[in-house]
Amino acid sequence: MRPMIASHRGGSLQWPENSPTAFRNTADLPVDQVEFDIHPTADGEIVVIHDATLDRTTNASGPVATRTLAELRSVTLNGTDGESMLTLAELIALFRPTPITLRMEIKPDPQHRPYPGLLQAALTQLDAKGMRARTIITSFQADTAAAAAATPGLAGAIWLVSPLVQADIGLDGIAAVADEMDIRRLGLRISHLDASMMAELRLRGLRVGAWAVNDAAAIKRAISLGVDVFTTDLPSLALELRG
């Protein structure tokens, strides 16, 4: 089975990350998934942006969650012609008519603490448009991934394992955490994944994907390893190389 391709942040090496332009262009591609990140606003909305702060990707600064949606509408995404970030509802509306699966990363706050109620609030919006079954939840925080894995009706839940965690607890530790928390899908950085690791994790009953697959060599490697899915900032190249 060939690996599925997820357009990471809407394809952030092709278009400005998590921007309306990126997502509109991704919606026209035959990718399997679109990856994006969510944070709450001060007035209970949910917006699509990677960082917990505005500093890196916009013309503003400070935490996303301290701004209302109206305030965030006036914030411009870097590299765009005056575009502002989408709400989760707007992204759902864009991809609902397509066959593309949503791959939604639940982000923590600037202190790496989970936002209370963010997962449930996102599920409410997905359910309003009948999109829960077409959504995979991902997180680098095992507790959040476990909560998603225990949530009925989703297309899946993935624990994204950072290289630091991988170095700290090893494959045995990763598998033990996954077993304890009943998480059956993992995502490892492609530079920290090889065929022997794939085989070992598969033997433990785990599905394995890769992230940071962002050049031709990495894409070819992910394909040759036979990962279930990989996220890439170059979705057009990935589609070409996958054939």
Textual characterization of the structure:
- The chain has helices at residues 20-27, 69-73, 88-95, 118-128, 142-149, 163-181, 195-203, 216-225, 235-242, and strands spanning 4-8, 33-40, 46-48, 101-106, 135-139, 156-161, 185-189, 207-211, 229-232.
- The chain is 35% helix and 19% strand.
- It has a single domain (4-242), classed as Phosphatidylinositol (PI) phosphodiesterase (TIM Barrel, Alpha-Beta Barrel), CATH 3.20.20.190.
- Strands 1, 2, 3, 4, 5, 6, 7, 8 and 9 form a nine-stranded mixed beta sheet that branches.
- The two termini are 13 Å apart.
- Strand 1, helix 1 and strand 2 (33-40) form a beta-alpha-beta unit.
- The protein is globular, with a radius of gyration of 17 Å.
- It is an alpha/beta fold and 243 residues long.
- The longest helix has 19 residues, at 163-181.
- The model has no long low-confidence stretch (mean pLDDT 98).
Short précis:
35% of the residues lie in helices and 19% in strands. The chain has 243 residues and is of the alpha/beta class.
Largest sheet: 9 strands, mixed
Count of DSSP strands: 9
Radius of gyration: 17 Å
Low-pLDDT stretches are none
CATH topology: TIM Barrel
Overall, the morphology is globular
Task: Report the helical percentage.
Answer: 25-40%
For the record, what CATH class applies? Answer: Alpha Beta
| Fourth-tier CATH superfamily name | Phosphatidylinositol (PI) phosphodiesterase
Give the structural class.
Answer: alpha/beta
Helix and strand string, N-terminal first? EHEEHHEHEHEHEHEHEH
Distance between the termini: 13 Å
Helix count from the secondary structure assignment:
9
Query: Number of folding domains?
Result: 1
Write down the overall mean pLDDT.
98
Second rung of CATH, namely the architecture:
Alpha-Beta Barrel
Beta-strand residue percentage: 15-25%
